[in-house]
Structures are given as C-alpha cells and as structure tokens.
Amino acid sequence: MSKMRAAVVYESMFGNTATIATAVANGLRKAGVQVKVIPVALAGNDVLRDHDLVVIGAPTHALGLSRPSTRADAVLQGAPAEVEARGVREWLADLTDAEPRSVRIATFDTRARAMRHLPGSAARHVAHLLRRRGYDVPPATSFYVAATLGPLAHDEEARASDWAANLGHQLKRQVA
After folding, report:
1. Is 62 left (phi over 0), alpha (psi -120 to 50) or beta?
2. What is the pLDDT of residues 80-119, one digit of tens each?
3. Residue 120 class from Cβ within 10 Å (0-12 exposed, 13-18 middle, 19+ buried)?
4. Whole-Å CA distances, 174 to 40, 67, 165
5. Which CA distances in Å does 149 have to 33, 76, 153?
6. H or E stretch including 108?
7. What is the rounded distance in angstroms from the CA atom of residue 163 to the CA atom of residue 176?
8. Domains of the chain: total
9. Cross-sheet strand order for the sheet of 104-112
10. Burial classification of residue 66, based on how many CB atoms lie within 10 Å of its CB (0-12 exposed, 13-18 middle, 19 or more buried)
C-alpha cells in the first residue's frame, strides 16, 4: 500500500493556529501519514485532489470564519499585514472540487477559551460549506487560546497531536 498523503491547510493571525497546524502534522506523521503543512495564502486549487486527507484549520473570528474586515482588525491588533490577503473562506470559494468521496476532510479552529460555549466556530463553518458541496466532514474540533492574541491554553499542542494521530490511524484503517 502506498503511503497516505495529507495536507494541513491553515489560516493564522497571531501564530496560534499555525502552532496547532504543526502539531496536527506531527500527529499525522506519528500515524505514518506523509504530510504537507500549507498556509492558506499558498494553498492551491489542487489540494483536495492531491491528498487522501485534508485538514483545514482557522481561527474563529466573530463567531465564524474570518472576513476581510476581521483580518484588517487583526492587523490593527498586531498581526502581520499579509494575513489580510486571503483567508480560508476565500480559498474555499475559489476551489475547484475534487470527487467528494475521494478525499477525507477534517476541520479544526482556535478560539478563546472564554468563548467555548458560544455557538460560532470557524471549523464548523468550514465543515458546513464543504458538506453543502457534497463532502463528508466529521464534527469539527476546537483548540483553545487563553485570549485573542494567545498563548495557547495548557496542553493544546499535545491534544492537537493526539487528535491528528487518531485521524491518521482512522484513515489508514478505512483505506486498508
């Protein structure tokens, strides 16, 4: 059997979602999955077609995915100016679909721990958009930051790695 291939596509304003994306990639590698970590600004139209698993991560902004206005606000709070260019929302809108059954999808977001009980979630928004296009997307996962700018809450990197290792093992069982 050929090695399973995964991509972790992420959007990050202050580095917290990028850190979780790296932890997710490390967990997938522990499960024996070959992984690329791709910032959304560099993600191409071929990501869904070229991988067995695509994990998509984004920070929760205004109870959902970022928009140009929320990314501009993040820049005013100290995020690098390049985050304004393109987010997961725009990347998904521009994608040419793969055959929905040919790729598995997982979604995660980062959000402030104080907002854990609020209904909005970037990952659930991504899952909803992809389900409308025919993809089977399991329930979203959230990882927590102490405040908008971070840092990550205690043990969230380890939790992300464990979550991803489980995803990798599931993927390998499903394909075998």
Report:
1. left
2. 999 888 999 999 999 876 676 788 999 999 998 776 667 7
3. middle
4. 27, 35, 14
5. 31, 12, 11
6. strand 104-112
7. 20
8. 1
9. 34-39, 5-10, 53-59, 104-112, 141-145
10. buried
CATH of the domain at 125: 3.40.50.360
- Quote the CA–CA distance of 168 and 164 in Å, as a whole number: 6
Whole domain around residue 79: which residue ranges? 5-175
> What is the per-residue pLDDT for 98?
63
Q: What is the DSSP string of 52-75?
A: SEEEEEEE-BTTBS--HHHHHHHH
pTM: 0.94
- In this structure, the chain runs to a length of 176
For residue 147, what is the DSSP state?
A: S
DSSP state string for 1-16? -PPPEEEEEE--SSSH
